[in-house]
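Q: Got a minute? One more chain.
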Amino acid sequence: MKRIFLTTVLLLLAVSGIKAFDRGLGNPKSVFIPKGSVAVSLSGGYNNWKANGESNEQGVLLAGIVSEVNGNVSLMNVSAAVSWFCADNLSLGARFGYGNTGLDLNHMEMLSLLQLSNRHIARETYTASVALRQYLPLFNSRIFALFFEGRLSGGFGYNKSFAVTERGKEGSYSDLYNLALGLYPGATVFATNSIAFEVSLPILEGVLEWDNQIKGQAHESSLTRKSINYKPSLLGINLGIVYHF
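A: Always. Here it is, folded:
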């Protein structure tokens, strides 16, 4: 009986000690965004690089490795999302995105071993996704919180790769399709009572892509790619502004 009593006391002390341990994070279940709220967000980016010379064979030097670069590259993407909070700190939403990439390379040399010229690429994609997001406010904050978002996405688009010859544009055309399932953690901070800024990036993502390609309007081929990545993708970092009401 004494052993049972002593063991019970020790267990209660151990449990009370675990419960009493405070890491200073406050209550992570405090209300950050209440149930019934609606949020709309917009994010995007645009980049353009242009290198010119007196002729197509003359251009700029990049990093001492790539020389005589003559051409331009443009990257543009924009996405809009709307979400409804079905519970405190928990939202269900939809996202729509558009991306456009253009490359016009007149000339480029790499270490005097490789030369490329007359290369043109045009790529356009459309995506749609549904997402479930859980917010985790720290220190009982109503201004700053981390979040974890699970997202299922699908998309389509096209890709053109061609050279300009005496006969016109010659190259290949591809129809693009993809499905993706991933986890996208991030952080959000409120600047006013209604406007917040957020940043997120993919950390776990599974992707299935397939391309249907036609070359020279005569030869058909296809390419399928499957991948699972468990690492942060800095190229996929997303910055956005969100309005809550």
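A: Residues 9-13, 15-20 have pLDDT under 50 and may be disordered.
Q: Perfect, thanks.
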